[in-house]
């Protein structure tokens, strides 16, 4: 019997076994998230997400990852960030700056990807890097912007003092090189839908699984380890898991801490 099992697993290379193990881990995390959604639905509480689709305050607190077992909480770089909260609450805008830099600042509203495409169509020949300063927003638009960035062969950066959270790291992943300043803040958390009432449990679980699969596939296509998103699945929408520089390098989200990131 043992020999039969050994022959079965010998059919798969080590990389494939690891990929399946990771998929199982993601499915388990989504299941826990769906159970949390079920508890919310039982209470029949209306959603509290603002129409803008961003959390308040702009810089949410760092999630505590200790779970009562000692150890340390996630890093909290908020004191290093210099943000104009009113500016970041406005729809994302794109401003061409000297040196081929396109500054993208504000929350990612529905329609942001179309505006980015229009900007690139007019000024794309001058752009070499996209600087991000955003609390996130629309998942669809963030992924679409990331794909346009990659298709154009552009770099991305989060400079010292800037903020990139929620769906913003998905845009950051689009850069052919990705520069992150040591005095910036990059964070992830669970996605949530804007609406009057939560979905029914079965639909909520289906939606959570589909969203997780989509984000994982996007990160993988961009050359970023999808395991990064496990931190998002563990983190409530009104907190952030702030990624350390070592984590960003390890996951492949940051490939550079060079001059662009230090501007």
Q: What is the assigned CATH homologous superfamily?
A: 2-enoyl-CoA Hydratase, Chain A, domain 1
CATH topology name? 2-enoyl-CoA Hydratase, Chain A, domain 1
Report the order of strands and helices: HHHEEHEHEEHEEHHEH
Strand order of the main beta sheet, please? 1-2-3-4-6
Stretches with pLDDT under 50, minimum 5 residues: 29-53, 68-72
Looking at the overall shape, the CATH architecture is Alpha-Beta Complex
**Which CATH top level class fits?**
Alpha Beta
User: What structural class results from the helix and strand content?
Assistant: alpha/beta
- Strand content bin: 5-15%
- Count the beta strands: 8
Measured between the Cα atoms of the first and last residue, the distance is 62 Å
H/I helix tally: 9
Explain what this protein looks like in three dimensions.
- This protein has 263 residues and is α/β, with parallel strands linked by helices.
- The protein has a single domain, classed as 2-enoyl-CoA Hydratase, Chain A, domain 1 (Alpha-Beta Complex).
- Helices cover 41% and strands 12% of the residues.
- The chain contains nine helices and eight strands.
- A five-stranded mixed sheet has the order 1-2-3-4-6.
- Helix 4 links the parallel strand 2 and strand 3.
- The longest helix has 30 residues.
- It starts with a helix and ends in a 12-residue tail after the last helix.
- About 11% of the residues have low confidence.
